[in-house]
């Protein structure tokens, strides 16, 4: 677990300059199309439905919000590599909001 986290941190550091551009494009506040509660529920089911295909469901409190943002971008690449459908920008945003809401 420690080693994997270290690997992730290295990945994040190398990938950060590339990912910042993508992260900034998906502005959290830009699309409040659903009510807060509906969005939180959708985020929960997306998280539970999409984030334990390849490993156990991660614990929201294990990372800070901006770290989750990077992890989600890396997971998009993992999904692409594995041939699993990637998250849309909206789905990814709902998952992020749900995780951050849970992380206390
Ligand atoms: C296509 C497979 C796949 C899916 C789907 C996937 N992951 Fe991952 N995930 C991985 C792999 C592989 C790793 C191991 C580290 C690496 O190579 O990036 C990983 C590692 C992680 C880690 C690092 C800590 C740990 O438990 O090892 C977190 C956090 C994480 N994933 C979160 C998520 C979240 C959140 C989602 C849903 C949006 C998700 N993953 C969906 C493949 C996946």
Structural class: mainly alpha
Number of E-type strands: 0
- The level of helicity is 55-70%
Discrete helix count: 4
- The fraction of residues in strands falls at under 5%
List segments where confidence is low: pLDDT < 50 over at least 5 consecutive residues.
Answer: 17-21
Topology at a glance:
Blueprint (H helix, E strand, L loop, with lengths): L1 H24 L10 H15 L14 H18 L6 H14 L2
Helix pairs in contact: 1-3, 2-4, 3-4
The protein binds heme C.
Heme C binds next to helix 1 and helix 3.
Give structural attributes.
single chain; 104 residues; mainly alpha; 4 helices; 68% helix; binds heme C
Q: Can you describe this structure?
A:
There is one protein chain. The chain is mainly alpha-helical and 104 residues long. It has a domain at 35-104. Helices cover 68% and strands 0% of the residues. It is built from four helices and no strands. It is globular, with a radius of gyration of 13 Å. The structure holds heme C (HEC).
Brief write-up:
By secondary structure, this protein is mostly helical.
